[in-house]
Write the structure tokens for this entry.
Amino acid sequence: MTDQASIDGFWQQYCQSQDIAGPAPTTTCFGDNADMQTSLCNLVVSGIKRATASLARYYGPGGDPLPKAGDLTIVLDGTGTPRGIIEIISVDRAAFNTVDAGFAADEGEGDGSLNYWISEHTEFFSRQLAEGGERLSETDEIILERFRLIWPAPNTSNRQPEP
């Protein structure tokens, strides 16, 4: 469960560390279950995960606003605890079957390979689409976000992907 007081406190700590003020940005969890969300959050705060992909159909009218470069987001783990703040660097659109090895490596999941990315994202997106009775197509449009962890600073001394 997300605790708004915890999120607000986390944001205030960041603001104090940067000598800035302003309302807290949006929050996100990567993944669709608590264990996955915590695992992916750990990759973000370690500096390994620097990108994410989502189905384009969830953005726009009736959906979430499309992220844009410069947006800040508070990343939550599977318990709803704020663990990091990321800044979006770039947002691109691509067909699922055109995602490249560089993007897969930036996602930092598994062994970082394109084959791993395809396998895991086929399964993940298929689960999402099955809820609406749909199936994933190789040409489905994907939103590809690259980001950087801005707070707390990542520990880059041991940047090994999770097995």
